[in-house]
């Protein structure tokens, strides 16, 4: 069955960096576009970034553009989110989510359980 | 990109129907046929209910249906059940290869 397992979250000081990972299994990872979506404590969902199945196309929310980088290693079936210059308002549960086969359609049929990032001094 | 507008709360009795609206602009909902709806129970990851405005993934009951008119999308839940009590989020593709979510609606089954 499809599984997405995020890791790498933790407590970090403002201005510092963190790298999140999402390990995929149960499907052909290299043929699906993938996203990161976050949810601040007690708040709604916020889209963060998308990467195409082959890694050639990447798009970001304005709130993270220039600070976050999405990437993937298809040989290791893993999605990444490099987060730099972290701010308090980046505090959230970060989900990885699967999009579509060989395309980006901006809907997510599978989600991980999330990894919590807390930015605090 | 501004969030889509959803009512913060909705409610209905078991067996009844409830409709949740999601209002955007011509730059998102009105410009794309890619509205999706998600259900999220407390402490759980979101679950896809509707994609492409009206399509249901396999396994989602036909009690859940979606529609769109102009810049407003809607999710209707028919035959309300206790387990339908959850938060519901809409989303839409938007200009510049973005995605925007609604603020969420808490559905209470009375």
Beta-strand percent range of chain B: over 45%
Helix content of chain A: under 10%
Mean pLDDT of chain A: 97
Chain pair forming the biggest interface = A-B, 21 and 26 residues
The whole-number mean of residue pLDDT values of chain B reads 96
Structural category of chain A: mainly beta
Instruction: Name the assembly state.
Output: heterodimer
Amino- and carboxy-terminal Cα gap of chain B: 35 Å
Kindly report how far apart the N and C termini of chain A lie. Answer: 40 Å
Order of helices and strands of chain B: EEEEEEEEE
Principal-axis shape of chain B equals: globular
Low-confidence stretches of chain B: none
Strand content of chain A: over 45%
Please identify the structural class of chain B as seen in this structure. Answer: mainly beta
Describe this structure as you would to a colleague.
- The complex is a heterodimer of chains A (121) and B (110).
- In chain A, strands 2, 4, 5, 6, 9, 10 and 11 form a seven-stranded mixed β-sheet that branches. Chain A has a four-stranded antiparallel β-sheet with strand order 1-3-8-7, with no helix packed on it.
- The termini of chain A are far apart.
- Chain A has strands spanning 3-7, 10-12, 18-25, 32-39, 45-51, 58-60, 68-73, 78-83, 92-101, 110-111, 115-119.
- In chain A, β7 and β8 form a beta hairpin.
- Chain A has 121 residues and is an all-beta fold.
- Chain B is globular and about 40 Å long.
- In chain B, the strands form two sheets. In chain B, strands 1, 3, 4, 7, 8 and 9 form a six-stranded mixed β-sheet that branches. A three-stranded antiparallel β-sheet of chain B has the order 2-6-5, with no helix packed on it.
- Chain B is mainly β and 110 residues long.
- Chain B starts with 8 loop residues before the first strand and ends with a strand.
- Chains A and B meet through β5 of A and β3, β7 and β8 of B.
